[in-house]
């Protein structure tokens, strides 16, 4: 049950991060927003790791840093960068819903690479989650493609992010089980994420933050996206330490629910929210319930 609660908290973190990122991109480029978010994610996570996981840090073997580097590449250079680029092109709601397919990627990787054997009810629940997300996006994806062929790039980026996040779940599961504290793993993965992003987006991020001295709200929104995402990452890693990837991933993939609700409240003028989005979300909730039941069997 603790893992399920942590997974839902992770979904809330990722879902709200998409909304803050969407607002921030009204005044900053997707790459600069990504850079700001990763830096802001890293700072509090590093402080928490030093306070509560220092013993684990001191005991790390050299090969652990290769795993942290891989996690940073897949999660932040791959997943978050592609995610923010997609949000800038097709919006937070569509991006978040497509990224819900990360559950499929994660389950596939977990079964084929790490040998997990989830209960069949978990698999049914995963399928239901993806079906709900597909229903939520069917019309909006078709309309978006008809209105703007360039939206195809956004959908491709969202699916790329989903694949990266699915792979992240499997890597994070192995790393937390091997090396200890999820806080420590989160901090080092974010550290490498900052190091990898700096040559790509560091200069432009600094320039855009400086240029917006009279109006800090966009940079602040990008920073809040980072704080929300760091909450999602930490909760996700703690959940993975306690439960299989095939159980955690579908529940974390409920983050589109939180994105849709928050979008309706805060950015309804930026997002075209249809009845199919909410119907799909209802089906997704049913899938999460099935996964939760299957995790106890």
Outline the secondary-structure elements.
Layout: H1 2-24, H2 30-52, H3 54-58, H4 64-90, H5 92-99, H6 102-114, H7 120-147, H8 151-179, H9 182-211, H10 217-242, H11 245-252, H12 255-266, H13 275-294
Helix pairs in contact: 1-5, 1-10, 1-11, 1-12, 2-4, 2-9, 2-10, 4-5, 4-8, 4-9, 5-8, 5-12, 6-8, 6-11, 7-13, 8-10, 9-10
Reported for the largest beta sheet, the result is: none
Rg for CA atoms: 18 Å
Average predicted local confidence, pLDDT: 84
- Share of helix, binned: over 70%
Gross morphology is: globular
Question: Span between N and C termini?
Answer: 12 Å
Helical stretch count? 13
Q: Based on DSSP secondary structure assignment, what is the total number of beta strands?
A: 0
Structural class based on helices, strands and sheet pairing: mainly alpha
Oligomer: single chain
pLDDT < 50 stretches? none
Strand content: under 5%
Helix/strand order: HHHHHHHHHHHHH
**Number of spatially distinct domains:** 1
